[in-house]
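Entry type: protein chain
Record version: 2
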Amino acid sequence: MSETAASQNPAEAQRLRVDIFSDIACPWCFIGKRRFESGLESSGLAQDVDVYWHAYQLDPTLPEHYDGSELDYLAKAKGMDPAQVEGMLQHVTAQAAEEGLNYDFGKLVVANSFTALRVLEHAKQQGLGGEMKEALLSAHFEKGLDTGSVDTLLQLAAEVGLDAAALRSALEAGSYADEVNADIAQARQIGVTGVPFFILDGKYGISGAQPAEVFANALTQVHAETVGAN
């Protein structure tokens, strides 16, 4: 799955573009990523699809470092009883486990995702957006790492093959904030109110972490329409 735009030659014109809006602090976004990947695999179109990751923030008001657990944060943010939130977390953990993901909300570090999304933008421009997205989601939900920490983010970036020193300089200079804000504004403009949100061929939207077969069927249908139109 490439991060680069398709060119205009006839072969590339038959490729299918998928834009995905998501937040690295969104538990359903990781589940949705896995289900999309499963659907793409079963569709047989993995070599014909270009995926573009777009930034989205579920809660831009979060401080860089939140003094409390995920349960504390959600109970306060949603005005819900902690026992009800605990049930929600158990449910999403079970859903994640079905996709081979090992969520650990007990050690999750609640943090603002904006800097992590800037790191993702840098990775996208270096052709490593998919790898960085995976690393950030896993760090946040499975490994209990502080994705609001620049040092943690630089370590993750180095592990996927990025130049950590160059990235540190870029972050200190404020780079990639405009691109992240542009993605968030685009999501607002097209009416995205929750993530993950998938757009196929710039026309067909799929909201939420749908079952893999939903993605497979949609990809097959839209790809057939795209190829047939060329």
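Comment: Residues 55 and 63 are 18 Å apart (CA to CA).
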